[in-house]
Design brief:
The protein is mostly beta strands. The chain is about 0% helix and about 50% strand. The strands form 2 sheets. Strands 2, 4, 5, 6, 9, 10 and 11 form a 7-stranded mixed beta sheet that branches. Strands 1-3-8-7 form a 4-stranded antiparallel beta sheet, with no helix packed on it. A hairpin with a 6-residue loop joins strand 5 and strand 6. The radius of gyration is 13 Å and the shape is globular.
Length: about 120
């Protein structure tokens, strides 16, 4: 059974930083592209960042470019999202997801989500 477990969320002041982690189990981690998707209250889910199987290709949404960085450690079966210069509009539930191909919106597995709240 596949498990994606996010951690690292919390309450932070605007301008602060958080690092999200997602530990994967039950799948061949290096065979999956990984992504971070967020959902703010009353809004649709948006892909924040994605990374290819080897980590050689990454995508960051325009809204987070230059502030957030996705990375992965295939030896630890973990994907990270470093979030700097946080803004109140970054407040959302952040989900980790795995996809069998890069650049797709079809995520095969999802984590349970972690809440990020940025206070102004």
């Amino acid at each position: 059974q596949v498990h994606l477990v996010e951690s690292g969320g919390g309450l932070v002041q605007a301008g602060g930083s958080l690092r999200l982690s997602c530990a994967a189990s039950g799948l061949t981690f290096s065979s999956y592209s990984m992504g971070w998707i967020r959902q703010a209250p009353g809004k649709e889910r948006d892909v924040v960042a994605a990374i290819s199987r080897s980590g050689g290709m990454t995508y960051h949404a325009d809204s987070v470019k230059g502030r957030f960085t996705i990375s992965r450690d295939n030896a630890k079966n973990t994907v990270y999202l470093q979030m700097n210069s946080l803004k109140p509009e970054d407040t959302a539930v952040y989900y980790c997801a795995a996809a069998s191909s890069y650049g797709t919106a079809n995520w095969d597995y999802w984590g349970q989500g972690t809440q990020v709240t940025v206070a102004s």
